[in-house]
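For the sake of transparency, this paper describes our internal protein records without simplification. The remainder of this section carries one protein's record, kept here as part of the documentation:
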Amino acid sequence: MLVKHGRFDLTIEGRHFSAERNHLVLFDCKQPHEYSAATDDLEFYWLLFNGAQTPALYQEILNLHNTGHIFSLTDPAPIQLGMTKLLTYGEMSQRAPEHTSSDTIYSMLCHLLSSGAPAGSDLDAIITRSLAYMDQHFDAPLSVEDVAGHVSLSSSYFTKQFRACTGYSPYEYLTLRRIDRAKELLLTSGMTVKQVAFETGYNSEENFIRAFKKKVGLSPSSFRQYPI
């Protein structure tokens, strides 16, 4: 839940919270919870999501923050944009491809992960810069060394800090971004599998097929016929 205006009170797993403008609330809806408006002008976005990696991501985000389930966002724009995109997808006459919504939700969660550095640390800015760099260049033959160099860190130190902040290694994150883009191209373009491989930063069709099958459970050709 992302509060746009007003304020509301919550009880989550027996703990009491109050959320107001630019506060984001993240909780497991399978656990006991209740909330109510504290002001008449309350307006908020509400999103329910699930997935195989959701429990791990959820716990990682909570572990990185010491504010319980409430996040005071210094830069709410990425979350607001994500919510707006999801609303737009829902209003389309034809349902948007699942990978489009998944990519949007994943980006929002990564924003929360990358903002989990302790206050006063430069790590938050460094991880945010590295995420932005990978998002812009994942379709190139990008290496972990390239990304570490962009933020002026050694590869080993960068990898350790990146995993601590996001729950993923830089290589794992790059792979996820590439596979997400590959899914989109397979479903919306007439590119061959080989063309998609090179378009998403892989140096060979074989490496792409191997990575895609490992992450998705299907070959690219099968996914194109039976998207999941």
